[in-house]
Amino acid sequence: MRRSPLFEAILNRVPDVGILAVITALVGAVSLYVFVAKNRRPGSSRSRGNTASKDDRLDFLSKVRRGCFDGCVVCMSWEVLTEGGQWRAAAREALITLSTSMTVYLMCRVASEEEKRSILAMLKGIPRLVRHNILFCETAKGYEAFSRQIKPAILVTHDSAQASFLGSVLPNVVLVGSALPGSTVTNIGCVSELTC
Question: Which controlled-vocabulary keywords does the entry list (predicted)?
């Protein structure tokens, strides 16, 4: 007895081509549903709409303070913590609090090796902040590249252009020190607002 290929056997047993069309349409519909459901993740900027209200901002900050993001990755630019080579008010304490409950990546823009050594000296003694999570770059594009590669749950930055762009890519972007109205970005005055 000769064995026939699968599709030939199916075609011989199916009396009408209309049934194949129905099966094809059904498989296509299921595939489309799975594709749409996969791209509509809860909490993503696509499903939240184009703007974040004040209630969304407060809800996000309360989730951070309650520990809903414990164990998650947060990327933070060095400029939100320091100014002129000195810690901003309560910034060191906020970094300590965040680093004990989350995996913190610090993104530092430097112009010289001396500046890099100074930053590393300032960060000595911060618990659970490991050296390989302190990243250095020379341009603003470096921050963007780090953020897109790491894909953090939270990005904390000082640059409004970067926040605007990455707000459409990352789920939670926090802009420190300035406001970006009409976007999904959360605006805060200082980094310590994330912890208190």
Answer: Membrane, Transmembrane, Transmembrane helix
SS3 content of the chain, % helix, strand, coil (to 5): 50, 15, 35
> Along the chain (196 residues), what's the average pLDDT of each consecutive run of 10 residues?
69 66 83 82 45 59 86 93 90 91 93 93 90 91 90 92 88 86 80 83
- Indicate if 29 and 80 belong to the same structural domain: no
Are the beta carbons of 102 and 183 closer than 8 angstroms?
no
Together in a domain, 107 and 55:
yes
The residues with which 157 forms a beta bridge, in sequence order, are 175
- How many independent structural domains does the chain possess? 2
Instruction: Please check whether residue 26 lies inside any domain of the structure.
Output: yes
Sheet architecture: strand order including 186-188: 134-137, 103-109, 73-77, 154-157, 173-176, 186-188
What range does the domain containing 140 cover? 50-194
